[in-house]
Amino acid sequence: MRSKSLLAGAIAIVGVLAVGVPVVDAAASTAATSSGAAKTTCTYKIYNQTPTKPSGFSFGYVNCPKPFGNGVQSSTYSATVNTKTGVATSKGSYKNWFDTGTLYGTYSLRGQYTSATKATLKGTFTIKGGTGAFKATKKATGTLTCSTTNADATSTCTSVLK
Questions:
Q1: Higher pLDDT pick, 2 / 129
Q2: Is pLDDT of 58 > 80?
Q3: DSSP bridge partners of 120
Q4: What does each C-alpha distance from 106 to 25, 60, 65, 66, 142 come to in angstroms?
Q5: How confident is the model at residue 20, as a pLDDT?
Q6: Does residue 25 contact residue 134 with C-beta atoms inside 8 Å?
Q7: What per-residue confidence (pLDDT) applies to 152?
Q8: SS3 3
Q9: Minimal CA–CA distance to 58: which of 76, 80, 44?
Q10: Is residue 78 helix, strand or coil?
């Protein structure tokens, strides 16, 4: 019984966690990586639309510094969970909408469930391109950390592009 509830919670959590991904334009990416100075850190509040499925989609709110600001995100995910060890993986694609354009890319996460409702996953994201004000965005990568305390309902994520 415990493994079934852990699996259901784990699948739901992985789906929820599969969303928070950062944003940055090409100039900010180059400046941040070449000078070692600024980082672009974004936070996300994610709502899973298919919480009990091993694959699906979610939506969320994005909060980033200028020039991005607040926006919304949609993402897809495909998840796996080892019900004996609690190890989980999730990967997928995302798109962030801001007032002046969009950014899109992929992400990959791996983490551990500490209960049927609590998990933390860490990984990387890749920005593949953008539209509008961000149409000149070049490929960039960063780190992504997501966690949940309520199984499949919501998750919070933080992305960092150095």
A1: 129
A2: yes
A3: 112, 147
A4: 16, 16, 21, 22, 11
A5: 40
A6: yes
A7: 58
A8: helix
A9: 76
A10: strand
